[in-house]
Amino acid sequence: MTTNWTSTESSHLSSWLLRVCLAAFILIGSSSIASAEEIAIAKADNPTADVSKKDLKKMLLGKAKKWKNGDKVVIVTLSGGAVHDTFIKKYAGKTAKQFTNYWRKMVFSGKGKMPKSFESEEELVAFVAGTDGAVGYIDSATAQDGVKAIAIK
Questions:
Q1: What is the spatial distance between Cα 56 and Cα 26, in angstroms, rounded to a whole number?
Q2: pLDDT tens digits, one per residue of 25-75
Q3: Measuring CA to CA, how many Å separate 115 from each of 25, 32, 75?
Q4: Cα–Cα distance measured from residue 49 to residue 46, given in angstroms and rounded to the nearest whole number
Q5: Backbone φ, ψ for residue 116 (5° rounding)
Q6: Neighbouring residues of 84: CB distance < 8 A, sequence distance ≥ 6
Q7: Longest CA span, the chain
Q8: Residue 31 CA, distance from chain mean position
Q9: Which among 73, 97, 137, 142 has most CB atoms closer than 10 A?
C-alpha cells in the first residue's frame, strides 16, 4: 500500500519534523551546557580570592610566575575532555592542541616546563590541595576537598 502525499501535507510533515528535531537539540544542548561550569581552583589556604581573566591567561601561559603572596605559580591541567577544552579555550585563548603546542615550544626553547597533567579531576584536586601555588580547573560539580574556587573577574 502506498500513500500519495500532497505537497501541502508533505510540507506540514517536514515542518513538524524540523520543529521536533530543533526542540530536542535545544533541550539536549542546554542541559549539557548547564551542567558544566568550569572553575579555577587553588589550594584552600591560598589567600587569593579572585583573579582577572587577563592575569589567569598569563598564569596559564607561564607569563605570570608568582601569586600576589609570593608563591610560585604551579600550573596543572587535565589531560583532555570537555572541561579541559572549554577552560583552555575560554581562559588561555587557545584550543587544547594549540595550548599543548605552545607549551612544547616553551619547553624546547628553555622558557618553561610542561604543566603537570592529570587524567581525572579528582587527581588534579588532590594535587592542588597538597601543593602551594598550584592553580588548576575542574567542573564545579566535582568534590573540592582541600581546594577553593578562585573567582574569575
A1: 32
A2: 666 654 444 455 999 999 999 999 999 999 999 999 999 999 999 999 999
A3: 36, 28, 5
A4: 8
A5: -65, 135
A6: 77, 78, 96, 137
A7: 80
A8: 17
A9: 137
Condensed to tens digits (0 to 9), the pLDDT of residues 73-107 reads 999 999 999 999 999 999 999 999 999 999 999 99
Stretch (H or E) spanning 15: helix 7-35
Q: Does residue 147 contact residue 45 with C-beta atoms inside 8 Å? A: no
Rounded (5°) CA angle 21-24-30: 135
For residues 45 and 60, what is the distance between their CA atoms, to the nearest angstrom?
Answer: 20
Q: Cα(47)–Cα(28) distance, rounded to whole angstroms?
A: 39
Q: Which of 17-31, 45-59, 110-124 has the lowest mean pLDDT?
A: 17-31
